[in-house]
Design brief:
This protein is of the alpha+beta class. The chain has 16 helices and 23 strands. The longest helix has 19 residues.
Length: 520
């Protein structure tokens, strides 16, 4: 990337007029003659972003995905229910926040108006003590967002604000990327909140909204990631905490159209094709080895999850240098999480939220009523008179007995929404996974970056360091575009323009105070 800055027209890419543009290295628009062949290994968000940016500029792209369908951790697959219905199962609810400029830009390739997404009216959070917070009425622009939240919240009031340690809390208002990692990667999210005297009654606001979004125990999560999340979603951006969700299951709404778009650009999409090894050749090319085949490419994008990246790099003895290989081998995943989807024979009460974050309910982290927004679920509910409910439990103890966890969060659903206790479960699916990256205390500098020791081998994914204020799905999309841009720059081709929320806090006065406090 050659430059960054702000443009008066930034609001076209989101509501926030302070969104920052990240410009690619200058070059010609696309290949006009013989173009290099590039392997993109991994068909999730990061891989699709990289493959799209490359194919749009004339690169010959082959996308390898080990699973039968695209989407990575947002993939879906058909299942037949006990009543004979064929429906789409997935790994669960994901929120498409308005700050996800680059992910939304990727989706606009096939859906210019983002008509496949629909907004949810609020992001309510309910604690077992009866307190409920929401964000629908909170102003979006800082500092009014923070002040408005304090004025409206039953769990975080003016007395709580006054009781916080102002000097210790100032970094919340002046997050700078990547400097935040230098200062706060060495302590945990939990310890940071205790350090600033964040009120105990409101800890669920920080942990459930931000920390547990990483599927991690806040005692193990880097405080730098927590601070970054506060900045992206609340104190550094005017986009707010409201979000959109797909109107149909992920494959139909998002990935099948994008896969078709990629094929239309001349890209080859090979689903059901795991890559076992990547071998660098003496001339700088790479041999990508799949089941019974070895294909030569001029460049490679590794857009894999943590386990997949460790496996491929570990099996590719000639890739990288000793330090880089050790850093990849050291990557770890977050604790297991559970997604339970229930097809019930009667509706959930009409006034229930489509999505509800929960705290204090024995590990139940949120409840979704899918038929409130997803067309497939709504059609099933209308036909049967029932409802489709999804439960999430994050950071589950690895020693926990799984059926016990499934039963416990079902009991908590009955406590939160009592009308479900009398419902018959027509069918249920329980997805246990443990493949999300963990951003542990002190681990930032060992996380790999987009660039690798090979100039034409790059990494992408939400586990990758980008140096930009992005997280979760947006980090995946942004890293994919960055990976493509690095390769394109080496070939003299102009890459993808990117957008992010501001890289620093919005208030110069508060920023100056925070920096002065840090020097004391």
């Amino acid at each position: 990337m050659s430059a960054r800055g702000r443009r008066p027209g930034a609001a076209r890419h989101g509501r926030d007029r302070r969104a920052e543009v990240v410009l690619p290295v200058p070059g010609r628009g696309r290949f006009t003659g013989d173009a290099p062949s590039t392997a993109v290994i991994g068909g999730g968000i990061a891989g699709l972003a990289a493959a799209t940016a490359l194919a749009e500029r004339g690169v010959r792209v082959t996308l390898y995905e080990r699973e039968p369908a695209l989407g990575g951790r947002l993939a879906g697959w058909p299942v037949r229910l006990a009543d004979g219905s064929v429906v789409t199962m997935s790994r669960g609810f994901h929120a498409f926040f308005r700050q996800y400029y680059n992910l939304r830009g990727l989706l606009r390739r096939t859906d210019p108006g983002l008509d496949a997404l629909t907004p949810l009216p609020d992001y309510p959070l309910r604690h077992r003590d009866g307190m409920t917070d929401g964000f629908a009425r909170v102003p979006r622009t800082p500092p009014w967002s923070a002040l408005g939240f304090v004025a409206l919240s039953p769990t975080f009031g003016w007395r709580d604000l006054a009781a916080m340690d102002p000097r210790a809390a100032l970094p919340l208002l002046d997050v700078r990327v990547p400097e935040v990692y230098e200062r706060f990667d060495g302590i945990s999210a939990s310890d940071f909140l205790h350090r600033i005297n964040f009120p105990e009654a409101a800890h669920h606001l920080a942990f459930e909204v931000f920390s547990r979004s990483f599927f991690a125990d806040p005692r193990e999560l880097s405080a730098a990631e927590l601070l970054l999340m506060f900045h992206i979603y609340f104190l550094g951006s005017s986009e707010g905490l409201l979000f959109d969700v797909p109107r149909e299951p992920f494959p139909q709404a998002l990935w099948e159209p994008l896969g078709g778009y990629l094929r239309g650009l001349g890209g080859e999409v090979r689903t059901g094709t795991p890559v076992h090894r990547v071998r660098p050749a003496a001339d700088g090319d790479f041999a990508v080895e799949t089941d019974g085949a070895s294909v030569r490419h001029q460049a490679v994008v590794l857009a894999l999850d943590t386990g997949g990246l460790r496996h491929v790099v570990g099996a590719s003895e000639e890739l990288g240098d000793t330090g880089w290989r050790a850093d990849v081998a050291a990557l770890r995943t977050a604790p297991p999480f559970l997604v339970s989807r229930l097809w019930l024979d009667r509706p959930v009460r009409a006034d229930r939220a489509g999505f509800l974050g929960t705290s204090g309910y024995d590990g139940l982290d949120n409840i979704s009523v899918l038929d409130r927004w997803e067309g497939e679920s709504a059609r099933w509910a209308e036909r049967t008179g029932g409802s489709v409910v999804e439960l999430h439990a994050y950071a589950v103890d690895e020693r926990a007995e799984r059926k016990g966890v499934q039963g416990r969060i079902l009991d908590r659903l009955h406590e939160v929404y009592p009308e479900t206790a009398d419902a018959r479960i027509v069918d249920a699916r329980h997805e246990w996974r443990s493949d999300c990256p963990v951003f542990s205390v002190g681990g930032y500098h060992r996380r790999p970056a987009v660039r690798t020791p090979h100039p034409r081998l790059v990494l992408a994914g939400d586990l990758v360091r980008t140096g930009l204020p992005v997280a979760l799905m947006e980090r995946a999309a942004t890293s994919g575009f960055l990976a493509a841009n690095h390769l394109l720059a080496g070939w003299g081709v102009r890459g993808q323009v990117l957008w992010t929320v501001p890289r620093a806090g919005r208030s110069r006065t508060l920023g100056a105070l925070a920096r002065a406090a840090a020097r004391r």
